[in-house]
Automatic annotation (TrEMBL):
GO terms for biological process: iron ion transmembrane transport. The keyword Transport applies. GO terms for cellular component: plasma membrane. One of its GO terms (molecular function) is cadmium ion transmembrane transporter activity. It is found in: Membrane. PANTHER family: NATURAL RESISTANCE-ASSOCIATED MACROPHAGE PROTEIN 2, SOLUTE CARRIER PROTEIN FAMILY 11 MEMBER. Keywords: Membrane, Symport, Transmembrane, Transmembrane helix, Transport. The chain crosses the membrane at residues 12-37, 43-66, 86-104, 116-137, 149-168, 188-210, 222-244, 264-284, 305-322, 328-347, 368-386. This is Divalent metal cation transporter. It comes from Arundinibacter roseus. It is a multi-pass membrane protein.
Length: 392
């Protein structure tokens, strides 16, 4: 019975690890490594907060869907009446645009990981990565796909943990920096980046979409350890950044780790970078298709074209080695506006007695925590908008 119970628990963690796979991408690797390079371990607390916030929001989104039997899109249409359809369309457009823009970065990040090990032509590597993503996305059963991605996340985590753990010299200081906030000079944008790369709006629709059919207990047993594992991986990446010297680049990071740990250090970093990119290559189109399904009520054929379009868009930008700055900028603005709105919608839903039974409603402490997260998402949104307008 214990073996069976462990197997079921592991299966649930693997299933929900798709959330970790979605937020740990090349952008996360870069942001966490830069934080470690420039500020040591002093900003670990920002990752602790972001992981807690991610769990609170993801659990609330899944609880609403499982408790009401309705998708987030259906709930928004119901809540907003005639305007609900237009709100859903605008949100879907912003999220799908963001997924398509970030898919290029995902493919280029995975290419960078492979290029650290093999100096083949980047166009060929891009095509192979795109083909691998296409094959995985063709899997019709969500549970199978999520568990495959979960295994890849474990490989990713193993790589970065093996790189970072042997270098830990002061565990007490790591614990202190993980729990007590500090704000070193010129760290505000990095803190916002650490939180913003973890809490993303399309993940809420991704989690809501894949969780249907589970019980509340099964969802909670899987989602908490899966997100915690993702947080530990992010912290390991940040710690690996403290080992670097000079300007940050993937090549520099691999060479520094090779000098400190031998050949295996650079190889494990390359594997971790590839894993971060490739899992996000799959989850970004998957999130876009589930968002379209829940917000736009698309047919299976239409949903299929959504993820194919996102994958193809990212692949084209990857093949051309082109950074779609205007599209990414538009996506940042959209996400900056979407996350506070979605967080507020979640807050209202988890306190709605017409939508959820009494035992599934938020407690007072949950509401206080969710309001704090809402405030942070608003500040992040304002910060992202200001940065976007400065670039313009």
């Amino acid at each position: 019975m214990k073996t069976l119970s462990f197997s079921r628990g592991l299966s649930r963690v693997l299933f929900w690890s798709v959330i970790s796979a979605a937020f740990i991408g090349p952008g996360t690797v870069t942001t966490c490594a830069l934080a470690g390079l420039n500020f040591g371990t002093s900003l670990l607390w920002a990752l602790s907060f972001s992981i807690l916030a991610t769990y609170v929001l993801q659990e609330a989104a899944a609880r609403i869907t499982l408790g009401s039997g309705k998708s987030l899109g259906e709930i928004m249409i119901m809540r907003h009446g005639k305007n609900g359809l237009w709100i859903s369309r605008l949100m879907a457009g912003g999220i799908i645009l963001g997924c398509a823009a970030y898919e290029a970065g995902n493919i280029l990040g995975a290419v960078s990981g492979i290029s650290l090990l093999w100096s083949g032509p980047t166009w060929l590597i891009s095509l192979l990565i795109g083909l691998g993503g296409f094959i995985l996305l063709q899997i019709r059963t969500i549970s199978v796909l999520t568990k495959v991605l979960g295994l890849l996340v474990f490989v990713l985590g193993f790589s970065f943990l093996i790189v970072s753990l042997p270098q830990v010299q002061n565990p007490a200081q790591l614990l202190q920096h993980s729990l007590i906030p500090s704000f070193p000079p010129e760290s505000a944008l990095v803190i916002a980046g650490l939180i913003g790369t973890t809490i993303v709006p399309y993940n809420l629709f991704l989690g809501s979409g894949i969780g249907q059919g589970q019980t509340i207990r099964e969802m909670r047993q899987g989602i908490f350890p899966a997100i915690l594992i993702g947080g530990i991986i992010s912290m390991a990446i940040l710690f690996s950044g403290t080992l670097m010297e000079g300007a940050f680049s993937f090549q520099n990071a691999a060479s520094v780790l090779t000098r400190k740990m031998g050949t295996w250090g650079g190889i494990l970093y390359a594997v971790g970078l590839f894993g971060a990119g490739f899992t996000s290559v799959v989850t970004a189109p998957l999130a876009a298709s589930l968002t379209a399904k829940t917000l736009l009520a698309t047919t299976p054929a239409q949903t299929s074209w959504v993820w194919k379009g996102v994958l193809a868009t990212g692949l084209v930008f990857g093949l051309l080695a082109f950074k779609p700055i205007p599209v990414i900028l538009a996506a940042q603005i959209a996400n900056a506006l979407l996350l506070p709105f979605v967080s507020w919608q979640l807050f209202r839903c988890v306190n709605d007695t017409k939508l959820l039974s009494t035992e599934l409603l938020n407690t007072r402490s949950q509401n206080l925590l969710l309001l704090l997260i809402l405030l942070v998402t608003i500040l992040l949104g304002v910060n992202s908008l200001l940065k976007a307008f400065q670039i313009l």
